[in-house]
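FORM 7B: Structural annotation worksheet

SECTION A. Query
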Amino acid sequence: MTASEASKTVPRTTQAAMHVSSLVHCILLFSSNLPTSVSAQSSSGSSDCTFFAINGSSFAESTHFTHYRFYDFRNIIDPLPPPVGQSSGLTASHTTNDSSWLLDWGPRNQAQGAANRVSIPVNYLPSNVYVSPANEPSSDYSSYLTLATSKLGNDTQSAAEIGFLPATDIVYVSLRVLARVSGTPGAVGGIFSYCDDESETDIEILTHDPTSQVRYSNQPTTNSKTGVPIAGATANDSIPSSNWEQWNVHRLDWLPGQTAKWANGVRLQTSTVNVQNTTARSQVFLDMWSNGGTWSGPMAVGGSAVMEVQWIEMAYNISGGSAPEHGATVCDIDKVVGSPVPAVSGGAQNGLYWNIWTWLCLVILSTTWLA
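SECTION B. Predicted structure
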């Protein structure tokens, strides 16, 4: 009797048992090979994310960030200082919508003398940083963070600055701020990452400029010996809204070998010139200031200006950050403001795995049937 003839003599009950066994084997094989990150990726909470991704360019999409923060000032009912506590530190992800933002952002408290014969002394005061109730009706917000500057009668400038406290050794960042600027000519609103005067990336709004214009720079912007501007280090661009007195999302990307500056989702400036030094300690700042110098211009005595902020969002790496490993949950911060979501949805991944294991099971079953 041939092997083929022998197989035909196997009782039907035995064949059925073999088929059931093969099916069970397929199910077990599928279950054991599902990626462990699928269940985590079904949640949109940033606490499930192990890395954070951004959009915009090949530079941006190849950069993954280990840390994420979102500070929401839109509906802070009690703007008083928070109880004694600690900053979010090295926690991978953190969001806040109350006065606890002060645990992560430190207002500058420093008197700065005149930088030269043209400029005037500047006093950075914590009292110039505060949460204000909205002065206009809106269903989107009832409050915002305010940074204020004013020219005093004694020929000094009162100014405001906040620095990000949890990380002073940032290496690469994508920083977004929903803000508006208004006030007397002669002030500067700044959003920037800073190591020193030779390693700095800026978004600056000057109140003596046209309201359509924002200045983007990688420091230094001029040759220290000749004073000649460095090509590609700075640009003045018109923002899509044509009005920085309105709410605009200003975005700064410091990436490997490149910086990019955005407004309202439109990339306006990209530069590979004087990209920040990655071997030194860098920190993120927002400020509102003037010193009467050639950059800010003079402000009239009694004049004032403010930068108002609805929210700050940032993804960043610190010194020694690592690249995503197999099975890591990478979340996209550009899908929903303040809520990173999986860069590849769990459904899409499940579909991929179902396809692979369905074909594998079919091969196993067909082999059993034909045996």
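SECTION C. Observations
The chain has five helices and 22 strands. Residues 81 and 277 are 35 Å apart (CA to CA).

SECTION D. Sign-off
Analyst initials: ____
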